Each structure stands twice: as C-alpha cells, then as structure tokens.
# Entry
Amino acid sequence: MKALQLIDHDFEDLELWYPVLRLREAGVTVHLAGEKAGEKYIGKYGVPAVADLSFDDIDADDYDALLVPGGWAPDKLRRFPAVLELVRRMDAQKKPIGQICHAGWVLISAKILQGRRVTSTPGIRDDMENAGAVWFDEPAVVDGHLVSSRRPPDLPQYMQAFLEVLYKGI
# Structure
C-alpha cells in the first residue's frame, strides 16, 4: 500500500510528520511530493523534510491514499495545477484523502467539497462553507473516502479515522 503526502514550505510540522510516521508504522509506504524532487522544505517550527517526488512526477494510479498537511503550505500547494488535478483524480477514484487544519484550502481550490461533510481549523470555516461543504467542529470527520481534522491535538482521532477508511478500501 502506498500513500502520498504533499509538502511545501511552512507546513505544520506535526500535521505532516505524525501522519507519515503512523502510516509507516502500519506498513504503508509514504512518499513526500513537492514542487521539486530532492528539495528540502522547512516546517513552521523548523523541522525539515525532503521531497521524494515532484508534483509533475506523480500518477494518481500509483497511490492508494493522499494526505495534505496544514500550516501555511496549503496556500502554496493550491496554486499548482498538478496538485489540484491529483486531488480531483484521487477524489474521482474514491481513494482516501486526508486533510487537516488549513489543508482544506487545497480541496476548496480543487472544487471537490460541494455537499461534503468536513472539519478544519475554525479559521477557514467560512471558506469551507462557501465552497459548499457542511462544516462540523469535531476532531475528525469522515465523509466516504474524505477524512478531515481540525488541528494538532486532534491528530490521534484523525489518524485512527484515516487508517479505518484506508483499510476499509482494501
């Protein structure tokens, strides 16, 4: 099983690394994808991560799941057409998509939230609702293959829900 974690500068450190490590503990191969393969990206709190792949190297058919971290990275990630197309393809294929905190911005820009049940950091609640989503103030919300969460303290519930959705799809 393979998952893809998107990355750009100023990702929220825990929201990137906690899911990566939990999935790897569960035996899932996780690749990091950024604008440039081999580039080092620095999180909000200084933790680095190196992209395994560039956005242009990704084929949605090669992955079973997608994760989008929070922080300020989502505001950058949503500007890449390849990222938005990847999100749309993963959604169309009903593969698990995990998003936490500000990561909802990427799903908004991909235009996949109409009528979907989600959560996010309360700071982008209006953005989520304006994109047609139904927003809940809960640690983790599951809507089919879409799993969303609010912030770092919710990571245990988020990853429990994400792993359940991931393994249900096998």
